[in-house]
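Internal ticket #5521
Category: modeling
Description: The requester needs a full-assembly model to guide mutagenesis choices. All entity lines are attached below as received. Residue total reported by intake: 305.
Assigned to: D.W.
Attached entities:
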Amino acid sequence: MISLYDYKQDLEQDGIIFSFSGPMSHEIIEGIGSAIRVKIGEGEGGDRKAALKVFAIFVEQVENVINYSVEKDYAQSDMSFGIVVVGKKDGLFFISGGNRIEAEKQNQLDEYLTKLAAMNKDELKVYYKERRRAEKTEGSKGAGIGFIEMARKSSKPLEFSFRKIDERHSFFTIKISI
Amino acid sequence: MENLEIQATKSSPEINFNSDNYTLSMIGESYPENTSQFYEPVYQWLESCTESLGEEKLVFNIELIYFNSSSSKVLMDLFDILEDASDDGKNIIVNWIYDEENDSALEYGEEFAEDMEALTFNLVEKS
């Protein structure tokens, strides 16, 4: 008899409230997003402000996977694959997202996120406003301000990593703490 | 001009424009699957409305509990249309309505207000 009990225990030990790995879609954002808001925001000890912040980061991370993951199952659909994890440890909520990217895009993303991680809140605000009024960058599917938004909401500098999968692909992970 | 009515969904706000009294309202949450597509009619409508606006006063009441970063960019574009029209002497008021418990909504409103010069941009606490 197979059991998911150990797997579930491992997740709980890491403080993980919710974990999803697989094809991402807008419906995932709406459905799981609502569950996260209820879980964190409602009931005894519920924190509505934190719930809305965690939800906001969750939305940006799933949208990043949808827009930028290069792991797609074209035979079935054009859905993008990735992973998003929400948890709480040492009094801080964390939201981590990961997806496959092209290795050649790694340096550019690394430089950009390193720049954001070094900015203080005032600098991030100025940069956010500047990018919000700027024309869309070519090839960018979103507004291009999702990472700045995440950095602004994060109580720690952005944490991120890249892991080589093969010559053409890397796995990108980003973690935000609130 | 015609009235504009868009029903709310879980991830997109209710939008209503009343052409009799030039009032536009937007209430709800905004993280639609395709942001530009969703806001295209509002954009079109605001552009033609500000062009035809005479002495009348245009009031835009906006109450968003949550909006994602791509909606934030679209909202900026909408406010910029109104900013330009105000600069041309048109009478336009934006009321950014927020719940006192939702401090991010107030903060976002303040940041839009800071970026507007000619446009009257009021921050209104929900009663």
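Resolution: model delivered.
Comment from assignee: The interface with chain A takes residues 10-11, 31, 33, 35, 65-66, 68-70, 72-74, 76, 80, 101-104, 111, 115 of chain B (CB under 8 Å).
Ticket closed.
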